[in-house]
């Protein structure tokens, strides 16, 4: 069987962008793949985090993975920092990557834009992501569209390592959803929705109160035309809502456009709100039970053991290939 790996940062409360672009597809994948789902807390500290909030979000994210249907009998769910091989291989891959190629990453440019000072970790984020993926011999990485460039870099680093040292890494492929791969901000639909966006009106969080979800959708930026049409260029607001609708309804976006022909924006937004509320309510109910449970800790302990076993083997191969430490 093939292996998949995907990580989400505990850098904020999860958004429907994270859900539609990544998490929603995980449960169906775990039946067919050897699956690793990771809470990537070392990635989160590339920007400043409050320590208590970070800890709480890490646990919250674990509960949310499970509430969305990750089955610990089928998948390995674990916390990145609890498996030391990630940080170790990351260092080795930083010594394979060049500063120039890291500076070309659009996420680095976006996240450092306008800042007086950013951490070195923000620049070396992609080699850590490459380590996450390569440690498990990953074949497929299910992520949102924004991670395309990082995955391309992962492939390059793996190939460079294989050619320079020894052929140990599998070259992973990316898996991107047809709809939902790029959910945009509700307030600025030319910008991607992000859990670390300061404008909370722009973002629907998976744990938002149901009333709040309706409010945010109703105040989403559209246009003054009043015609429901799919047009990314000229009608990015309504196009984003159509994509979100199609993604929740699991239907082609053309069908959603046809079904809503002639409808006003107000009614369309109302329908969308109900659809989103319905799906998130069920997840939220499961989430609140899991968050408090001891079962959650058992699952994470178990996940760490399994991940550590697999990752340590690959790390040893990498050390051997590079000549790190003594041979044994
Ligand atoms: P941050 O702003 O802290 O980077 P984020 O919302 O981008 O947070 P990540 O933890 O970086 O979330 O990414 C987790 C997963 O969610 C990745 O697979 C990423 O591609 C996906 N993702 C993030 N934002 C979106 C979005 N707007 N649409 C679709 N997928 C997304
Ligand atoms: Mg991100």
Automatic annotation (TrEMBL):
<feature type="binding site">
    <location>
        <begin position="17"/>
        <end position="18"/>
    </location>
    <ligand>
        <name>ATP</name>
    </ligand>
</feature>
<keyword id="KW-0067">ATP-binding</keyword>
<feature type="binding site">
    <location>
        <begin position="192"/>
        <end position="196"/>
    </location>
    <ligand>
        <name>ATP</name>
    </ligand>
</feature>
<dbReference type="GO" id="GO:0004830">
    <property type="term" value="F:tryptophan-tRNA ligase activity"/>
</dbReference>
<feature type="binding site">
    <location>
        <position position="183"/>
    </location>
    <ligand>
        <name>ATP</name>
    </ligand>
</feature>
<comment type="function">
    <text>Catalyzes the attachment of tryptophan to tRNA(Trp).</text>
</comment>
<comment type="similarity">
    <text>Belongs to the class-I aminoacyl-tRNA synthetase family.</text>
</comment>
<dbReference type="Pfam" id="PF00579">
    <property type="entry name" value="tRNA-synt_1b"/>
</dbReference>
<feature type="binding site">
    <location>
        <begin position="144"/>
        <end position="146"/>
    </location>
    <ligand>
        <name>ATP</name>
    </ligand>
</feature>
<dbReference type="InterPro" id="IPR024109">
    <property type="entry name" value="Trp-tRNA-ligase_bac-type"/>
</dbReference>
<feature type="short sequence motif" description="'KMSKS' region">
    <location>
        <begin position="192"/>
        <end position="196"/>
    </location>
</feature>
<dbReference type="GO" id="GO:0005524">
    <property type="term" value="F:ATP binding"/>
</dbReference>
<keyword id="KW-0963">Cytoplasm</keyword>
<dbReference type="InterPro" id="IPR002306">
    <property type="entry name" value="Trp-tRNA-ligase"/>
</dbReference>
<keyword id="KW-0030">Aminoacyl-tRNA synthetase</keyword>
<dbReference type="GO" id="GO:0006436">
    <property type="term" value="P:tryptophanyl-tRNA aminoacylation"/>
</dbReference>
<dbReference type="InterPro" id="IPR002305">
    <property type="entry name" value="aa-tRNA-synth_Ic"/>
</dbReference>
<protein>
    <recommendedName>
        <fullName>Tryptophan--tRNA ligase</fullName>
        <ecNumber>6.1.1.2</ecNumber>
    </recommendedName>
</protein>
<dbReference type="GO" id="GO:0005829">
    <property type="term" value="C:cytosol"/>
</dbReference>
<keyword id="KW-0547">Nucleotide-binding</keyword>
<feature type="binding site">
    <location>
        <position position="132"/>
    </location>
    <ligand>
        <name>L-tryptophan</name>
    </ligand>
</feature>
<dbReference type="InterPro" id="IPR001412">
    <property type="entry name" value="aa-tRNA-synth_I_CS"/>
</dbReference>
<keyword id="KW-0436">Ligase</keyword>
<feature type="short sequence motif" description="'HIGH' region">
    <location>
        <begin position="10"/>
        <end position="18"/>
    </location>
</feature>
<keyword id="KW-0648">Protein biosynthesis</keyword>
<comment type="subunit">
    <text>Homodimer.</text>
</comment>
<dbReference type="InterPro" id="IPR014729">
    <property type="entry name" value="Rossmann-like_a/b/a_fold"/>
</dbReference>
<feature type="binding site">
    <location>
        <begin position="9"/>
        <end position="11"/>
    </location>
    <ligand>
        <name>ATP</name>
    </ligand>
</feature>
<dbReference type="InterPro" id="IPR050203">
    <property type="entry name" value="Trp-tRNA_synthetase"/>
</dbReference>
């Amino acid at each position: 069987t093939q292996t998949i790996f995907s990580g989400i940062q505990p850098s904020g409360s999860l958004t429907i962008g994270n859900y539609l672009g990544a998490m929603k597809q995980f449960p169906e994948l775990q039946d067919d793949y050897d699956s690793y789902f990771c809470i990537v807390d070392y990635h989160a500290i590339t920007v400043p985090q409050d320590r208590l909030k970070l800890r709480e979000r890490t646990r919250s994210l674990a509960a949310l993975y499970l509430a969305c249907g990750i089955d610990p009998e089928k998948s390995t769910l674990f916390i990145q920092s609890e498996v030391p091989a990630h940080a170790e291989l990351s260092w080795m891959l930083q010594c394979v990557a060049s500063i120039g190629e890291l500076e070309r990453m659009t996420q680095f440019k976006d996240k450092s834009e306008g800042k007086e000072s950013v951490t070195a970790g923000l620049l070396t984020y992609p080699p850590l992501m490459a380590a996450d993926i390569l440690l498990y011999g990953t074949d497929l990485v299910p992520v949102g569209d924004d991670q395309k460039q990082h995955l391309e870099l992962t492939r390059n680093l793996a190939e460079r390592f294989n050619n320079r040292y020894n052929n140990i890494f599998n070259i992973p492929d990316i898996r991107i959803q047809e709809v939902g791969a790029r959910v945009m901000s509700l307030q600025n639909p030319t910008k991607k929705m992000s859990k670390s966006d300061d404008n909370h009106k722009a973002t629907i969080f998976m744990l938002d109160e149901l009333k709040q979800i309706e409010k945010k959708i109703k105040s989403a930026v559209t246009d003054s035309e009043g015609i429901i049409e799919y047009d990314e260029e000229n009608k990015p607001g309504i196009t984003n809502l159509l994509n979100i609708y199609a993604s929740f309804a699991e239907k082609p976006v053309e069908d959603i456009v046809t079904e809503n022909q002639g409808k006003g924006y107000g009614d369309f937004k109302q329908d969308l709100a109900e659809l989103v509320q319905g799906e998130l309510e069920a997840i939220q109910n499961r989430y609140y039970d899991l968050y408090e449970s001891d079962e959650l800790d058992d699952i994470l302990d178990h996940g760490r053991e399994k991940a550590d076993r697999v990752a340590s083997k690959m790390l040893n191969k990498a050390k051997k290939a590079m000549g790190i430490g003594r041979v044994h």
